[in-house]
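Recap quiz, item 2
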Amino acid sequence: MWPIPQSWLNGNETLKIFPSLGIKCTNIETAEELTQQIFEGAKNRFREFLVNEKYISPNVHFEVSKNSLTLHSLTIEITGDKSSKLNLNTNESYELSIPSTSDENQPLIAHLKASTIFGILHGLNTFTQLLYFSKEEKELFLPFAPHYIKDYPRFAHRGLLLDTSRNYYPVRDLLSMLDVMSWNKFNVFHWHIVDANSWPVKSEVYPELSEKGAYDPETMIYTKEDIKTIVEFAHQRGIRVIPEFDMPGHTFAISYSMPEIITCPDVQPNWNDFSASPPSGQMNPVLPATYEFLSNLIPEMTSWFPDEFYHTGGDEVVMNCWKATDSVTAYLKEHPNDTYESLLKMFINRLHSLVRENDKIPITWQEMIVDHKLPLPKDVIVQVWTTEDNIKKVTELGYRVIAGSADYWYLDCGHGGWVGDNPDGNSWCDPFKHWQRIYSYNPTKGLTEEEAKRVIGGETLLWSEQADPTNFETRLWPRASSAAEILWSGNYDENGNLRTTKEALSRLNDWRFRMVARGIRAEPLQPLWCVKNPGKCDLPPALKNPF
Amino acid sequence: MWPIPQSWLNGNETLKIFPSLGIKCTNIETAEELTQQIFEGAKNRFREFLVNEKYISPNVHFEVSKNSLTLHSLTIEITGDKSSKLNLNTNESYELSIPSTSDENQPLIAHLKASTIFGILHGLNTFTQLLYFSKEEKELFLPFAPHYIKDYPRFAHRGLLLDTSRNYYPVRDLLSMLDVMSWNKFNVFHWHIVDANSWPVKSEVYPELSEKGAYDPETMIYTKEDIKTIVEFAHQRGIRVIPEFDMPGHTFAISYSMPEIITCPDVQPNWNDFSASPPSGQMNPVLPATYEFLSNLIPEMTSWFPDEFYHTGGDEVVMNCWKATDSVTAYLKEHPNDTYESLLKMFINRLHSLVRENDKIPITWQEMIVDHKLPLPKDVIVQVWTTEDNIKKVTELGYRVIAGSADYWYLDCGHGGWVGDNPDGNSWCDPFKHWQRIYSYNPTKGLTEEEAKRVIGGETLLWSEQADPTNFETRLWPRASSAAEILWSGNYDENGNLRTTKEALSRLNDWRFRMVARGIRAEPLQPLWCVKNPGKCDLPPALKNPF
């Protein structure tokens, strides 16, 4: 079971499953129409699992008896808000009870209830993980009944970032990823949709952005319709899509269509003096054309993404880029009270104002607060990608935080430098973040209770310099699952004990093999022998504290 | 083009390809029947590429003219040995010439000649890499003609090791891997077929080995028929299959069926005192039953693998295991002139004798020579998996060497420890071996000319603790290609200049995308932007020598 429920009592009976298990929501008729559609979709996916999954676990064994009772149906109730609204405050809790006895002659009925349809979705996903196929009996069973599960998320924001600019992913790959995310109870897809390398979004206001800036203007783009498909597919699975249009840095791709508003474009060969990675280029903060561009683009992009948040980027601004730009230096000469930092402030103020005018709250990378110390309003959410002391700093200032340290939750690290002509180069964020390290990350470590409340959650991140459709699934799974459990279940169990990789490994192995059975290329964590023999490949006690 | 030919002259004409390009071998009728079959298979695969590949390169651009000449046919000649014999001495060289002009009204004809059918296979593979599909013209072209290629391998033994014991791979995955190996001009599949974790080989003499020691006795095995399929498929592609039955260590899986001949099986929890990895277990060197087992097993296994070499293993023997075994200590008490080391010598002598009695030459891991200093005959080939000073030591002693250092050519490293309950554990051979590091490995570094001649080649290795069918393809490619070029083309070009990653990157990117077009999940090395803009993502000069 992954992520593990907050509270879970179970037993030792094995139930059979009625082949056409009845699934009924008692009060779905009173729900909003879209809520009804979401329920229908979830019910169909649930049935698919019942019929097709046939998952045989390598390490979960159970007894089958000829006298096993049969689970006859599942009764569902939405106890609270029946709208389809999904946001940071959505109640995602649920209760699932699967009895193993019933009054004489009464059919066995499981019950799932939740405040919202999104709690129901989580409950159904949990249910699918209780089902195991028996190799011997060639039938589906529900072992370890009865089950009484009371479950709710530790963090409200449980995200996964995918970068679709360094390399492009077809829509079908994103949809498949969203499916796997929902099984893992992720609820935010942070879509790092554009960056310096390519601009795959086909804007209707500025079609030249992708005509010139996408890797391929016909096949490697996301149209308005594609984005609608992705956003709706995600919503159907309880996932919010938050787009990031990173600015003012990481914007070289705009220069293919609007060279005038990009400063220091593609400086070679010393790109490193102007940018964290090639190609260099930042938006010009002193040109009216820049702001005209923003004032046209942002209303369009915010209208395509219904979520109340919008990620404005803001990482890795390099002042050298502006210092090397004539129009910027001329502007500063004319405005002696201004500085490069005040130009950044001006740019960010205008950008955030536009976002707010379009009814969104901005999210920003930590640099705007930690490095540039901009006095942004306290409703801005700050995403911290470096060390925990920065989470402390930012929450102390009163901001809400999304946590996801490069030292723990960057899924791309450890595969060698992607920069060319660099035989000795490893990746800057070496080593690889193995699932055990990911599991050891505590987003609220060292914070006061007040500060900890401001950590709304976290994100695990796949930057795509060395990932694309060929390998992203193995990069993501099951390591992103490791982060998912920390975000859903929390670092501590209901008795206040720290969750350990020793306890988690067997469950994660089981979950990995179940994902593989669902057609997902989730990587193996161990030799199958270790999976089949839990604990036998653990670090020997003598090596645990060698000194 | 990958691996790059030893000598390659080309031009700037773009040829069209006659849709049903004639392919004819002038003297195939005089060849051995199996040679004829190999040729037919190769011709069919070549035609498949002509019809179906449609590879559009992201970084190779060429001019198409309405007046382009059309290549009409390919004429092939085997100039030497027409047998289908494939071994360490097989001549794999070939010459390919593709003209861009012809006498008036004469059709354009390409010529491929080679001493053996296996040279012909390499030439055909090279030819397929000259073909590019035009996105605009929707047609196949052969740019940069004329081509005059004279090519031969730098090393005779160009291997890839895959471990099918830690995790199992279905036959279809091995066949697919062999295909990709042949495109990369690998000629040895070192099949690390059994190990401590599982025994997938279904012996007919000892069926209980896989009935009890395979992960699944029905679905996760290799039958005699499977092995025949794999060996023949490989032979058809110019690849020798050398099996490794690692002994006396790494043999725990035998204990499931024959516990009496395995010492210190699965010691827990301090397995590390008895074995390099769990589960512990070594063959018992003092029991007649051990030798009876060998004398039955080895004739069978050697008969299933036609190659003249047989890998006997021999790595990571831990004497503590025998020291903890009553029968061994009792034997030593009765034989005061013996020692643990002399018992090892006795075991290896018997093992190697059996291999030789079955007409094979043993290959051994370096430990038998470097650590245990056994006086093995000089025809034994020694595989060195550690540092270059050990290659020096072993060649100084007069042995032939297969090189493949864990510091350079282990494809599994850098993905975190697979041992459980180990949150801080990275992989022992961190970091990840990125393609640039792999490319920088010189198997004959620091050797005299005489010593260097004894290095018959090398192998890149994928141990499968964290690899299985879900991810092995991305682990292998394109990094194994990096080793393949060093093995085929050598570290130095025909003018004696060191091959550089700077020169190689564009070609490797092109080759990676071609492998993807062939349906292989080869990983991306860079953002597509870097692929499309060669050199622009190179390490800036200022960072090259920072001090």
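The mean pLDDT of chain A is 96.
The radius of gyration of chain A is 25 Å.
End of item.
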